[in-house]
Amino acid sequence: MGRRKERRTGTEHDPGRDSADVRAQTPRARVPLGFYLFALSTPLLLALLLEVGLRLGGYGGGHPLFLRDETGLRYRTNPRAAAGYFTAKDAEVPTLYQQDFPVTKPSGTTRIFCLGASTTAGFPYQESPTFPFLIEQRLQMMFPEHRFEVINLGVAAVMSRTVLDFGRSCLEHDPDLVVVYMGHNEFYGVLGAGSTMRLGSSRAAVRAVLVLRQLRIFQLGQRVLGAFTSRKAGSEPTGGAETLMETMAANRTIPIDSKLFQSAQTTFEANLADLVAAATRRGVPVVLCTLVSNERSLPPFVSLDREGMRIDWNPDPVESAPSPARTGDASSRSQGRSDSDARVCDLVQRATNEMDEGVWQNALRDLDAAQAIDSLPARIAYLRGRCEAELGQNAEARRAFARARDLDGLRFRAPSSFNQVIRSYRGRDHVEIADVEQAFRDASPIGSPGKELLLEHVHPNARGYALIAKTVVAQMAKTDLLDLDWSKAPTISDSLFWARSAVTPLDERIGDFQVAVLKSRWPFTDGPTP
Length: 530
Description:
One of its GO terms (molecular function) is phosphatidylcholine lysophospholipase activity. By secondary structure, this protein is α/β, with parallel strands linked by helices. It folds into two domains: 66-296 and 414-519, SGNH hydrolase (Rossmann fold, 3-Layer(aba) Sandwich); 310-407, Serine Threonine Protein Phosphatase 5, Tetratricopeptide repeat (Alpha Horseshoe), CATH 1.25.40.10. The chain has helices at 15-25, 33-56, 118-121, 131-142, 160-170, 203-212, 216-234, 244-248, 259-282, 339-356, 360-373, 378-390, 394-407, 416-423, 436-442, 462-478, 494-500, 505-519, and strands at residues 66-68, 74-77, 100-102, 109-116, 147-154, 177-181, 286-289, 310-311, 332-333, 431-434. The strands form three sheets. The chain has a five-stranded parallel sheet with strand order 5-4-6-7-10, with helices on both faces. Strands 1-2-3 form a three-stranded antiparallel sheet, with no helix packed on it. Strands 8-9 form a two-stranded parallel sheet. The chain is globular. The N and C termini lie far apart (105 Å). The relative contact order is 0.12.
């Protein structure tokens, strides 16, 4: 019999497919949870071991504000207390003036801490003409039987974040009073809104980074990176050693209505509020000083038009042109001007020529016409102030000079709004306002601070620092601070105080030399710049 052929179906038997199905049905071996924990924890464990090893080996370290001396009985200020805020090479970190005071405050002693940046530190002077030192001298003359400790915690190139941290530290050391002078460095101080060392606008993120910088691993990585970048930079030609002003300024055109400007002011308000709150919780009174800057004798560094673009005035016999902008700055408007921009420049140039000829009223008329087209260039406001001062319109001149300062796109001087923030604390418990700005206005021609009391943009001369000290002490007396019998204190005239003070002509000459060096560089001249 023949075999019946099997009918083929459309599906043929596939041994390979059967084996694949078997594999698919076979359950995979599960990776133990411990494996993942080990994989995640190993890098952390290694990092922890490295951190411990670096600490045991004495590598790096923190930067406390105060250090105990060898006896353990006295604290001294740490010159490198600000190092943790900077990313620059060690030699470039501004240092704190060294002072010491007893760990336990003696009976009959008044302890005052002064907080701030380079003005508090006393730039360009050394110890004697600084306002904390002069506060101590004035108080000692008024109360010779009492002992005063006035500790200067000012350090150059820091903004309110560093001042806040220093303030919290000093509150741990039994102060009777804290004096605060800060605000000029909110844009270009370390961590500032326009600084080369900015860490962003989030205060929480800044705090987190500052904590990380205390880790030895972070410090090691920072040093390695710094060594690499230093070698790379060292292969390129430079224009000489930079000043701090050159080093710190990144965003060199910051319009008054910009987000960056608002970020700086918001940060200033928040840090000042935290500092006052910390002192209030401790029951420590605070004297907040309003800020003073050179309005009348210093033209604005950078003028911005209504679009936030920098104006290059050409020619410019009155104001030195700023240096080239860094990457990220607003564009410069010198070519391709619109008709209205060209008209503004022509009017300002004509006004400048008329001012050179002493025809002040005509110059003011042309400046009015320019301002009607564009009200934002700081140069227009400054030239208006000069004309109004010459014409005896002092109130108008004061407003114009202050407006020019506020509109200056290169923000090395605090704007008026910062003083408004400071004055808003008037009447608060444990807070007094020493109106330094008003004291300088009262002592200046036409009520506008200038070269009589200020050396450059923000730093007073020796007599200006003495005026700050006098203003602060006067506010202490007015509000009966420090548990002293102010009614029995003798009146110390300015001439008597100056004759008895430790300020010498040599101190002033040294300061003049320091300022001459500073003013030979950007932004005061067209000298070397990054």
